[in-house]
Amino acid sequence: MSEPMADHASRAATAPPVLGAVTPPISVAATSSGAPRARVRVPRGRRPAARVRYVVKSLLLWAFAMLFLLPFAWMVSSSLKRNIDVFAIPPTWIPDPVQWQNYVVVWVEGIPSMAVFFANSLTVSGIGLVGDLTTSALAGYAFARLQFKGRDKVFLLYLATTIVPAQLLLIPRFMFFQQLGFYNTLWALILPGIFTVFGTFLMRQAFLGVPPELGEAARMDGAGEFRLFFRIYLPQVRATLAALAIISWVGSWNDYEGPLIMLSDAWLYTIPLGLTRFVDADGGLSAGLAMAGSVSSVIPVLVVFLVFQKQFVAALANTGIK
């Protein structure tokens, strides 16, 4: 550096600050390369305000969470009460006495028992889940990445089927499965859940979000369509697959109208329809037994959501970014 430039730099460094200018305190820290780095300190007066805002937001979120958990807490409490105590006024949250016998009756003494309904629901939801993920992923990839004549028109016609209400299709579906011999079998509940328009649409949008350069590079290396699908594109949409798995599982697990129309044998009932069979000595619905069965039915849904929670949130976040 020349002498005039050095003198100018030294005078600038020792010059007094300009009146009225506010400069935050600066501390110098060494970077990984050894060069000094300026670091601006947050004034201490702002830290308590930010902490107060954080505490207030946390309390509000906890309050809303507790509000939404109240029905579940009431269900757990009612599952341990006598029928006469469930509808007592004023209501009581703590059962007295605690009726653990409700769960014994539901799971062991019922004819058929909750175990039978549980096995039927697991069969229907499990097979339907695998089928829905398979067909939705394949169809979504075809509509997103394969080039064929009339692709977009076929996809629009496929989406147009969602205009028809599902309740309107119950009777034609009943007649169709009766002619095929599937009435009063679990296949009448499994087959409609294997092919879903929503799953195809969701997976198509996910595959469209994958950069096409990945597939083009693999195709130049000689990869075929199946290898592109399984090795390149499918790993990129795992979060969306997890979100679809939760939605498909919950929808099939909670389905009531399908079993009500398609099943007549009580030993084939799924959980939503099986809960209506828990009656008291007078022939009316036993609230305590129904609540005990409802608490038991929620456990698999919670397990599936907790397992795929991170992927589900990631899928929602990615969808919002797109």
Automatic annotation (TrEMBL):
Residues 118-308 form the ABC transmembrane type-1 domain. This is L-arabinose transport system permease protein AraQ. It comes from the Bacteria. It is a multi-pass membrane protein. Belongs to the binding-protein-dependent transport system permease family. Its main location: membrane. InterPro entries: MetI-like, MetI-like_sf. The chain crosses the membrane at residues 54-76, 122-143, 155-174, 186-207, 228-250, 285-308. It comes from Occultella aeris.
